[in-house]
Give the backbone structure.
Amino acid sequence: MRVVVGGAGLGGVSAAVGLCRAGHEVVLYERGAELREAGTGVVIMPNGVRALDALGLGDAVRSGRGEETPAATGGLRDWRGRPLLVTDAGEARRTVGAPAVVGRTELHQALRAPLPPESVRTGTAIERLDPAESGVAVISDGERVDAADAVIVADGIGSTLRVRLFPGHPGLRRVGRLDLRGTLPAPAGLDVTDLLAGVLVDRRTGSMFGLFPLRDGGLYWFTDSALHGTPPAPDEARRQMLSLMADWHPAVPALIEATPPADVYVDAIACLARPLPTYALGRIALLGDAAHAMTPDLGQGASQAFEDAAAITRHLEDAGPSQVAERLRRYDAERRPRANRLMAQASRQSWLTSRTGATAWLRDAALRAIPDRLATRQLAALWQA
């Protein structure tokens, strides 16, 4: 069976590898001139690691040093680093498994390594899909470039194919938040042990800072703050964040300042304005951010894409052309309720952590009252998702 995958991000590459290994003839189309994934770090939750295992790709996040975050505690702290919700990260790892934190470029290289070169078509943007009873025509630059028994749409948060497939859907909405992300070698003499695998929140401004260890010994950090107007360039965004977080825990401004502007990525946070009515339309299925773009508050974006890829591979593994539509309906029935639930949960988490004033003070007081054991169970549930 011939399967076309449109989009070579983490989810699209994983699905292409899984379907190749299932014995299908797979062609992966990428609009860029080469297969690449720019960015900083990516947190893969334990459920995402298990999905990669199902695809035979678990070594992509397990090889090398530091596959498991060494943090002893996690949870939430205030901007000074004082505990709000303390968790036992070691106990959570023993309960549901460990998350993995990997450089995005490194991870993409490892995931795409098993793909046969003849399966990849770069420099080709899929313009539209023309479905028929017997297959799907793939159109690029006004011309038919392929015909497939099944098509997997994996062209990311700004999916142009999603717009064509769901013309009445409102698409993305910005949530009024700005995300900065950076990676750097661990600075000598700076102790960040207590901050690892945790998030700092500031009830005065509604801003956040998260820090995770990379498996190569480096650090991955992110910020989340209010966005007013157009997202600034990385150097200006970095300067603004240094000013905003100047009186935070000393490690926070030190890490931001130690990260060169060229290594800082800036995004206006967006998510789907409302869930899609289906992830499958006949012989076409959507995957990852194209299907369920969510805010990053649960750290589940990449993990949900990997779950999609594993589910599509499983449902199509022994399918013939005549069975595609039914198998993709099963994929939709499995994945849409779960991913949409996490979309809603991420939005609620975003609202909660970005509060200011009296609401934020009450939130912090409530978090401090939660027993550590219960907080650990909540962390395990988040990692399990």
The first strand starts at residue 2 and ends at 6. Residues 324-353 form the longest helix (30 residues).
